[in-house]
Structures are given as C-alpha cells and as structure tokens.
Amino acid sequence: MKKFLISLSVFLLAAFVTQYVVYTVFKKVLDSKSKFRITRYFRSPKHKYFVLGNSRGVNSINEKYATEKLKLDIINLSFNGMPYQNMAAILTDVNSKNTNAVIFVEISCLNNNEFDNSYSYYSSNSTIIKKQFSGSVYNMFNLLRLDNELFLRNIYYLKKSDNDWVNNYTITQSIIDKIKTDTSFKIAPNKDLFATRLAELQKTCNDHGNRLVYFLAPYYPGYLYKISDYNSVLSYMSENSKTYQFINLNKEKMTDDMFADRLHTNVKGSVLLTTDLVALSK
Q1: By residue range, what is the domain housing residue 83?
Q2: Contact, 186 vs 229, CB < 8 A?
Q3: What is the count of structural domains for the chain?
Q4: Which band of pLDDT confidence, cut at 50, 70 and 90, is reported for residue 169?
C-alpha cells in the first residue's frame, strides 16, 4: 500500500508539473505572437482610446477604420457575449495601466449576470483577472485555462489580425419581417443593479484619471419599440448627465444596409458610428 501511494504521488506530481509546463509554453508563444485583441492589449496595454462591451461593442466600433483612417490610438476589447464581471475586470486592468485615456463602454453588457471561465486564460497576464479565479480549479490546474474559445481565438489569429472583425453582411428582409413577432426585452431588467454597475465603473475610471464614456450602440430602427425600458434608460442617463457622459447612437441616421441584424451594425454602419462616437465624445 505504501509503495502504491508513493507511486501515485510521483505520478500526480509529474502530471501537475507537465500540465504547467505545457500551459506555460503555449502561453508564452501565443502571448508574443497572437494578434487577438485581448492578447494584443496585454502585450501593449497603453492606448488613448479603449472600447469595451459585448458583440454590440465589437460590431459598432471599427478599430481598423479608426486606426488607419482616423489615425487614432484605439483598441476594441469587446468580445461576443462578454459578461459584466469579466468586462469589469478588464476595465480595471486598463485603468491600472493607463491615465488620461478615454474608455467607451457599451451599456447593454451591464445586464449580463453570467461569469465566463474562459477568461481564466488571462490569469497569468493580469493580477486582477487572476484574483477572480483565486481558489478555483482554474487557478490550480493551468492546462484547464486552454480549454476554451479564447485559447482557440489566439491560435486562429496567429497569422492575421482581428482589428477588422466586424459583421460584413446586411440584414435580410426575412429578419426584418420577423421583428413583428419578436418578444419585447429590456436593456436593464434590474434597474438597481444597472445603476450600481454604472457607478462602479465610473468610480474606477475617476480614481485612475481616465474618462469613461457610456454609449448605446444602435438597434435596427424597427426593433427599438421591442425594448420596453428604452425610454426609461435614456431618462435615467439624462437625469444623471452630470455624473455620466452618455451617447445614444440610436439617434444617428442609419439605413437598412448599415445593419447586419436586429442587434448589430455591419462594416458600413461601424464606419459611421466610429467617426460619430469619437466626435461626440469630445
């Protein structure tokens, strides 16, 4: 029995060391070579403009256009389905490494109460993210941090950049017709939580000398009436305009060919929005 326990201990130790080595090697290569947006940020964290949000943040602000045409020092750190807690951790990291930056946050991501373990992939890049996974299995077994989409994205973007990752198609008539039967929804289903999160992010930016600009990316115009709290959210932001800088991009004049679907703009739309958001934020 003693011999078995010794053998088992040696095996477990070897397995633990091996998974750590494999993770470290993969991570070192990807951290230095991948052009995936979040990895690019950790490689070069200082910028003038930052964008954070979910897929609506991804598709409304065109980093490639802003960089090449508007000559802005900007990085769009938005990611599809990014939950609030993960977004807030990245924003805190941005604040810890920058001063006098302008940080744009798309507010529809503030209502997401989920937590995505995929972001454990960046535990070794950020003490703030590492703290989120303290005591979890992802903190103990490094190799588990590679079992997610972010790891695969890093591999995919080894040879190409994702700074032009914006929908490149146009909303179809069938999607437009379906809006009539779509159910209504809310931007901020929990008003108190929405208000708390607005204040949390604002305080973080204020404490580090960075300017936070909240914005609401456009919905397809015919879909706006499905948002039952649209006017109340706008009223709240207006009532607190001395505390929060807010830009409603739904006011922009946009045509059908600027939308990819009900929730997202496409490349053509993102060019207009990127120009206008930067101009309106000044």
Answers
A1: 2-281
A2: yes
A3: 1
A4: very high
